[in-house]
């Protein structure tokens, strides 16, 4: 039987690295998109295509004849300004879709974010479209519409919406959450809460969406819904750390929103990656249901504790 071939954008990132490892373990041929400056360490066996999400020719070569395209490349407001975020997430997706349209491609699995869904009920699901807050959410929502149109026309595509991904190799959310449970120097936890999903569960979800998702459909890939104080407590219990005991007052975070707006206006550019609406969002309980992915894809997630041994070991090895 011929080997399945996958093209992965964002292959050098946190989620992309884990996905590539799994695909290689399962016997796929893996092509990865990498910028010239990307760190490709530790990903032996990937066939690299060097370029970015705006380079039409590189993308055409990357996707030509593959069974699966996993589109993970993206940027958030912590690492880039709003214009770059819009360009990479929305326009990069448009360029990739155009390459897929003109090539012989199997199914595309697009990784959006759960952040394009929100609810005033307890748990948001795929039908709870949110008014985007900030360039990250608006660019992901715009990219989703492009992918939906591609699936309606001539292409085959499915969109997944991971919640907050937790696991080794992440340099943003994971160390912040772990610090709340482990570090005596980090006495404060955030108000509100979120859905924490292990990176291996998201990789399972990506592969199930490829194999069993309905063309044009969307699936939330979430994990446990936890308040920050509960998450900090459980991390501390598991790893013998010292949980954050003092809540950061919501008012302090809400006050930081307008301050950030003023500084940005004075500096005439984005200095802080949030404004007052994002500040309010950061203190909410952003809880999600993965019921649809469970029923249609057989998606399962494990509790936080299942992901802690490997992730805490990684955190301790990188934070001395
Ligand atoms: N982490 C989460 O909690 C989370 C939750 C929901 C959704 N997501 C989505 O999942 C995807 C992967 O997230 P992640 O956490 O793995 O992010 P990450 O570690 O920051 O990786 C992002 C990847 O995108 C690549 N990239 C950025 N700009 C590019 C460009 N112009 N051309 C080509 N590649 C570019 C990066 O390449 P370099 O290595 O060169 O920087 C990297 O490989 C993203 O689309 C993100 O929005 C993440």
TrEMBL record:
> InterPro entries attached here?
Epimerase_deHydtase, Lipid_A_modif_metabolic_enz, NAD(P)-bd_dom_sf
Mention any Pfam family matching this sequence.
Epimerase
* Stretches of the chain forming a coiled coil according to its record: none
SUPFAM superfamilies per UniProt: NAD(P)-binding Rossmann-fold domains
Tell me where in this chain the NAD-dependent epimerase/dehydratase domain is found: 7-222
**The organism's place on the tree of life at top rank:** Archaea
Q: Please name the Gene3D superfamilies in this protein's record.
A: NAD(P)-binding Rossmann-like Domain (3.40.50.720)
Q: What's the protein here called?
A: NAD-dependent epimerase/dehydratase family protein
